[in-house]
Design a protein that fits this description.
Number of strands: 11
Order of helices and strands: EEEEEEEEEEE
Shape: globular
Number of helices: 0
Structural class: mainly beta
Radius of gyration: 13 Å
Amino acid sequence: QLQLLVSGSGLVKPSQTLSLTCTISVGSIATDYYYWTWISQPPGKGLEWMGAIGYRGGFYYNPSLKSRTSISRDTSKNQFTLQLSSVTPEDTAVYYCGAEAELVREYYSLPILRGQGIQVTVSS
């Protein structure tokens, strides 16, 4: 069964770049028919789709975050990575990676296939 594991720093200073990695345990991010996605949930707020990378390598970004967001993948390690630049305390959130059979740009609930979530705090 596909499992996803999020890793990265839980504390980032303002103006720096947040970097998270999602590693999948089974299969291949390059061939499995999924959109590999990143979602955030700030405290007390709803889910925000940040972006995704398709299994063929296509990139999809939330327009409101596109200027600060970069998603990449390392197929040799079965990993995909989120980088969010110029962070502010408003970027404090729990971040999730997930896998979707179709591209989903708006979330009301977490993906069924997802990592465990990681708390990232932006603070000096």
